[in-house]
């Protein structure tokens, strides 16, 4: 057997995705097959009915795109890779396989309905949570913790003990997990982590195209192949002083790809606004979270320990749907079954234009929240991570003058003007929505600051300041 | 994110920009925030993981962008052959931002001053190395000098063992390693 492609899987986005026999054996593992039963976008089908695709096909797609990116970087930047990391051809071939496995397995730790019930991951032991100082996010396990736990435990046999792998690569489950979690044990392969979780990563490149395709919208489209063909690694001198040590190489693009990179970021923005942050979609995340809380033992998922992971793998969408169909989940289970969701009555504006607007938005949120009192049954924060300043910081190298390297924002006036901030959303029950909307209208009438507010008469948003 | 946490973060950014005036780029800001959490336990709430360029959390850059859009910080880009760097300075609303984080800054004034004094004049490449050493020491709990140098060398092979060892010794001398 060799690592040549021995199996091709048809994919609506990429045509065919090729696998070698080893990858095929990993995909056959029950813990990977479970991803067929984890929907990519939770209950988004209650808004966009065809959003029924799963983490299984997305994981295959991420592996495919990661390989395209890897091959492109190697072909355009072998000098940097060999100079900085001491790669030879064998090393590059071995790390390519590691990156493919990391991409393939990066999502195996997802809980049922993907992100919808992640708030129910248990807290980390205090000693782990405090490693980098008090951190809001580090307090709880994340799905990545389950992915690396499963790779090290459940997948170890099909990675470390695979005969063909032992004879050819000797890749270990620890090495694959280390790339995903950002562990120094990954060694030079840590450089490739950006292809899985970075400014130009295979994860978002795949999910934008895939989600758009299945939902039936065009917002998420961009020119994948143009972008891939222009990706490269930059060895960056420190402040122009070439006698100094290099900063670590970064992934960037050549100037021919800047329009495609801009389109990727705009696609991400549009998909978040139109799909991922859709008010009704978010309402179903709320219902799922509370329904799951009533169905899970002690209201939490098991921890990603050896014993906990075995239990964790038993939780998938099918099990939840069966339980909901049997009447579990309480009030929220009923709302999920009958599509009778909470209603959004207020949200803060997306982009405060200055300090004063930011402060007035905070004050307005407090006023509305106080006026609504107990009518508010759920409050959600939309973290606008669809766009990070780092995304626009993608280095772009002039094709005609390699010394001319500029950030993407220097090329794109559209991206230069982008700002973002988290949005707060307040929900009430459908039964109290009419009363709540009146209260919110009353509060907003008193406030004449130029905010974007809900126009409840027409059900759409309008800029009060501009309209008056 | 609670508004108070964002206000505290931006207040810390402003104070770092004031203290390191002229030497605060994005890499510096990222690593100084890491040092504030890792060495001084300042509750900025970032979650750093390791990349080839050291500990990183994209939320730092997202917050920087928020600060720029509010005129709390002002960033210029400087170009040089083969690259570019950022120059982050206090903006027009820097004072108001600090006012919004008054209690937090009063509590952590010394921590921020300490980080700025210890690391504020270092180059980005140095900070990438120093923060990687600290990360490997804390996260991997590797305390042995030779073992730690070898582990860091794997991630950052473009630094010599001597360079890594020198920075290890400096951090160790400052009693910043476990």
**How much strand of chain A?**
5-15%
> Tally of extended strands of chain B?
4
Biggest beta sheet summary of chain B: 2 strands, antiparallel
Write down the Rg of chain A: 24 Å
What does this structure look like?
The complex is a heterodimer of chains A (about 475) and B (about 180). The longest helix of chain A has about 30 residues, at about 55-85. A 4-stranded mixed sheet of chain A has the order 3-4-7-8. In chain A, strands 5-9-6 form a 3-stranded antiparallel sheet, sandwiched between helices. In chain A, strand 1 and strand 2 form a beta hairpin. Chain A contains 22 helices and 11 strands. Helix content of chain A is about 50%, strand content about 10%. The model of chain A is unreliable at about 130-135 and about 450-468 (pLDDT under 50). The N and C termini of chain A lie far apart (about 75 Å). Chain B is α+β, with helices and mostly antiparallel strands. Chain B has 2 domains: about 1-120, Arc Repressor Mutant, subunit A (Orthogonal Bundle), CATH 1.10.10; about 125-180. Chain B has helices at about 5-20, 25-40, 60-70, 95-100, 100-120, 125-140, 145-155, 160-175, and strands at about 50, 55, 75-80, 85-90. A two-stranded antiparallel sheet of chain B has the order 1-2. In chain B, helix 6 (about 125-140) crosses helix 7 and helix 6 (about 125-140) crosses helix 8. The longest helix of chain B has 18 residues, at about 100-120. Chain B is globular. The interface between A and B is large, with 65 and 69 residues.
